[in-house]
Design a protein that fits this description.
With about 80 residues, the protein is α+β, with helices and mostly antiparallel strands. The chain has a single domain, classed as Roll (Ubiquitin-like (UB roll)), CATH 3.10.20.30. The chain is built from two helices and five strands; from the N terminus they run E-H-E-H-E-E-E. The protein has a five-stranded mixed β-sheet, with helices on one face. Strand 3 and strand 4 form a beta hairpin. The longest helix has 11 residues. It is globular.
Length: about 80
């Protein structure tokens, strides 16, 4: 499984991150693994929108092996 993240989250590293999650994992499981990998506190990405196969999905969405998540974090601007 792979997560595609913004350059801001990548902090100078790769914007594609491999994730180790068990078979039958949900988006929430993948997000928890990503937060840990990035050194973030649990729940830091709770407000992020997640896209799988081009569609925004809920954090309870089941994942298939080899899928890629796109993590879309909210931004402020004006």
């Amino acid at each position: 499984m792979t997560a595609r993240i913004s350059a801001t989250l990548a902090a100078g590293g790769s914007t594609r991150r491999p994730l180790q999650v068990p078979d039958g994992a949900s988006v929430a499981d993948a997000i928890a693994a990503l937060e840990s990998d990035l050194g973030m506190s649990p729940g830091s990405l709770a407000s992020a929108a997640i896209s799988v196969r081009g569609a925004i999905v809920g954090h309870d969405h089941p994942l298939l092996g080899g899928e890629e998540l796109a993590v879309v974090v909210p931004v402020a601007g004006g």
